[in-house]
Amino acid sequence: MSHILSVLVNNRPRVLARVSSLLGQRNFNIESISVGQSEEKDLSRMIIVTGGDERTLNQVSKQLSKLIDVIEVRTITESTSVERELMLIRVTSEPNVRMEIQGIVDPFRASVVDVGHDSLMLQATGDRAKLDTLTELLRPYGILEVARTGVIALSRELNQTSLTTVI
Amino acid sequence: MAPQLESKTNSIGLDEKKYTGSEILLRSLVEEGVEMIFGYPGGAVLPIYDSLYDGHVRHMLARHEQGAIHAADGYARATGKPGVVMATSGPGATNLVTGIATAMMDSIPMICITGNVPLSLLGTDAFQEADITGITMPITKHNYLVRSIEEIPTIVKEAFTIATTGRPGPVLIDIPKDVSQAMSTFTYPEKVEIRGLFQPEAPTDVQINRLQQVIQQAERPVILAGGGVVRANAQAELIEFAEKSNIPVTTTLMGLGGFPSRNELWLGMPGMHGTYAANHALLECDLLIGIGARFDDRVTMGRIDKFATGAKIIHIDIDPAEIDKNVHTYVPIVGDVKQVLAAANETLSSANSSNWIKQCDDWKAKFPLQYDDSDENGLKPQWVIEHLDETTEGKAIVSTDVGQHQMWVAQYYQFSEPRSLLSSGGLGTMGFGFPAAIGAQFASPDRTVIAVTGDGGFQMTAQELAVVALENIPVKIVIINNQCLGMVRQWQEVFYKERYSEVDLSGSPDFVKLAEAYGVKAWRATNKEEATQAWKEALHHSGPAVVDFWVNPNENVYPMVAPGTGLDEMMMGDEEQ
Ligand SMILES: Cc1ncc(C[n+]2csc(CCOP(=O)(O)OP(=O)(O)O)c2C)c(N)n1
Ligand SMILES: [Mg+2]
User: Fold this and answer.
1) CA-CA distance, B223 to B92, in Å (whole number)?
2) Is B87 in the pocket of ligand 1 (CB under 6 A)?
3) Quick check: is B557 in a domain?
4) Mean pLDDT of chain B
5) Strands (E), B81-180
6) Spatial distance between the Cα atoms of B249 and B567, rounded to a whole number of angstroms
7) Which CATH number do you get for residue A106?
8) Percentage of residues in chain B with pLDDT exceeding 90?
9) Does B171 lie in the same domain as B40?
10) Are residues A69 and A87 both part of a single domain?
11) Nearest-CA residue of chain B relative to A24?
12) What is the number of domains present in chain A?
């Protein structure tokens, strides 16, 4: 089962290395990790999607909290959060299938962001499942390149559990 | 040499005078009360060694950076104050790695200072460049690459704060050469705020009540005390806790001395080479109180399914990440062990444990540690350790290396005080014992400091004989010489059908001559009579001494529990097999 960790860290050199090295050291699998500016000037927020059971998750949250550059660790529960990912995908598209592709991507509210002689670049946002589905639907046309940001997520109001303090 | 450097800051904390980065570094160390640096110079730390030349802080020149860092570690273990070690970039820094990992595993506060190539050359594979902050990321509590001279005082202050707050650990500061050569004014911060640093809170009444309640309900309670008791200086609180609640105590290797071995409630050490009483108490208890212990696999044998299965577990530890890491906890209490025990002691009353205590005493009487002490086929190493114990009344500081002799020290030296056993428990680092004793002796010039080491491990850091000879540091080096890598030989005997692969240490030097070559007095003993005489002379000698005890090479450490089996499957001795 995947879990999402929201980790507030100092915006300093090597913080990403510290976090990912710790996850590796503790034998904890990373599905995706994304980093960006947080609401505080000197802090970044990392969103880490990981596999593993509840106990491992608990342990890793506590190990992460021990890093001096980590200010706060929270688990984010899928059902009570908003989860988003951005995908850019380039597919082969001879002019004759362009309309067909347009028809596929419309319900996903994806948009065409670049048109070439034989290919289209599309941009889509959503949760992981939605982007996975879109990718599968486009596969028969020939996927040339995919880039995804990894998940970012925020809990909805009043629904966060903090793991930084243990009893 | 006492620190001669006085802070020149005036009343409003301003100082217009400019100093080099290396002077600022040393002034910052003096502000932190550092009296002693263990180190080794080289190109990237030349500016710092130049500043040291003015005699700000005492420095011990080791003969290998590993010797320097273990000495700093021994100093820290003996005093509780952070040990400070310094090395140059590249090979100097990488030679520290084993020592840093050793300190990390045993939660020892250390400040490791390394030089590095100038900022402009970082990342270019410059001469003697090594990415030591990258390399030590998983084996330090935190580390810093100093990017400007202005950062030095804050970073030093932070480093000491981090190394000594909460669960202690090593912190590394890497200083590029141009930063230590730059010039700036100096003010030392009084306080630093480190948002990401965990500081435990005082225990709540609810927690303390809960603890008492569970203790009241217990009939077969046992305390498992670990290194956290020693780190927290909580021996007095633990004694009171155990005696008031009438609960027997077993101390892990790191916890030895945290509870006096001569106390009636003491069961001995548990685990792989633990006593029958300690292991059976852990197996049969209905309440297990872990105090500053982390339930590692040398205690549980990695068989949680067979460990304290009928017991509720109370776990008191300063590190939240230790709670529920290895065992499931019924009552977790995150906090400073000393503070928690002191709070509990205020209202603690006795558990319903008298039958259980009788049972434990019975085990102690029926299955004591034992060996055949005849010296017909060479000295018995256990006897040597008992002899050390008797002649020093269990009051010496004893460092060990790693191997059979380490376990015999743990079993047969009756530690009465905390910070008396200095041993690499977590990493199990051969080469640790002798240099650690040097550091401890620097810290405690008036105590007897004994380094008990193996003929294998001694050869990993024996070069530090130069230091004890030169500075007349009266460490007593006891070599338990079994002419082999004894602990490995034992495993090959027991688990690998006596296929002795690469454990014969033939070719070792004559240790007496080796010591004498350095100008250190030395003795050899092959039987009890020689041993008694040699040790007496060595102990009373005013300077450093080496005693090479030739022991029976076939001796094994018992009891023994094979890894992956339960604590109930103890091998009690050779006769049984
Ligand atoms: C640096 C290092 N290398 C290897 C080992 C593995 N090891 C553990 S005990 C041991 C034998 C130690 O021999 P010796 O120092 O003679 O002590 P003895 O067991 O004979 O008392 C070895 C090789 C280790 N612990 N540390
Ligand atoms: Mg040996």
Assistant:
1) 43
2) no
3) yes
4) 95
5) 83-87, 110-116, 142-145, 170-176
6) 17
7) 3.30.70.1150
8) 95
9) yes
10) no
11) B138
12) 2
Same domain, B27 and B59: yes
Helices (H), strands (E): how many in chain B? Answer: 23, 22
Note the pLDDT of residue A46. Answer: 97
When pLDDT is cut at 50, 70 and 90, the band that residue B544 belongs to is: very high
| Gap from A147 CA to chain B (nearest CA, Å) | 28
- Tell me the pLDDT band of B55, cut-offs 50, 70 and 90: confident
Q: pTM here?
A: 0.95
B244 HSE (CA, 13 A, CB side): 18
Which residues constitute the domain of residue B442?
Answer: 381-564+572-576
Instruction: Give the residue ranges of chain A where pLDDT is below 50.
Output: 159-160, 162-167
User: What are the pLDDT digits (tens) for B448-492?
Assistant: 999 999 999 999 999 999 999 999 999 999 999 999 999 999 999
User: Mean pLDDT throughout B202-215?
Assistant: 96
Ligand 1 atom at minimum distance from B402 CA: 9
By residue range, what is the domain housing residue A28? 2-81+156-165
Q: Sign (positive/negative) of CA torsion B36, B38, B40, B44?
A: negative
**HSE, side-chain direction, 13 A CA sphere, residue A64:** 32
ipTM metric: 0.92
How much distance in Å is there from the Cα of B497 to the middle of ligand 2?
Answer: 20
Q: A152-155 and A81-92 as β-strands: parallel, antiparallel, unpaired?
A: antiparallel
Region of poorest pLDDT, from A73-82, B341-350, B434-443, B494-503:
A73-82
Ligand nearest to the CA of B404: 1
C-alpha closest to that of B280 among B366, B354, B352? B366
SS3 sequence, B103-125? Answer: HHHCCCCEEEEEEECCHHHCCCC
Instruction: Give, as one character, the DSSP assignment of residue A95.
Output: G
When divided into structural domains, chain B yields a total of: 3
Provide the edge-to-edge strand list for the sheet that holds A70-76: A30-37, A43-50, A3-10, A70-76, A161-162
Asked whether residue A68 falls in the same domain as residue A126, the answer is no
Cβ B474 under 6 angstroms from ligand 1: no
The DSSP H or E segment spanning B516 is helix B511-517
Both tokens assigned to B297: 């696999």
CA dist list (Å): B162 to A22, B170, B247, B571: 18, 9, 34, 43
Cβ-contact B241, B306 below 8 angstroms = no
Residues B321, A70: C-beta atoms closer than 8 Å: no
What's residue B12's pLDDT? 55
Angle between helices B21-31 and B152-164 (to 10 degrees): 30
B interface mutation test: which of A54, A66, A70 has the most B CBs within 10 A? A66
CA distance B36 to B56: 10
Element (H, E) at B32: none
Mean pLDDT of chain A: 91
Ligand nearest to the CA of B402: 1
Please say whether the beta carbons of A63 and A26 come within 8 A: yes
Catalytic residues of B: 65, 127-128, 177, 487
CATH code of the domain in which A53 resides: 3.30.70.260
pLDDT, tens only, B427-451? 999 999 999 999 999 999 999 999 9
Q: B337-345 vs B205-217: helix axis angle to the nearest 10?
A: 70
Indicate if A39 and A70 belong to the same structural domain: yes
> Is B283 in the same domain as B313?
yes
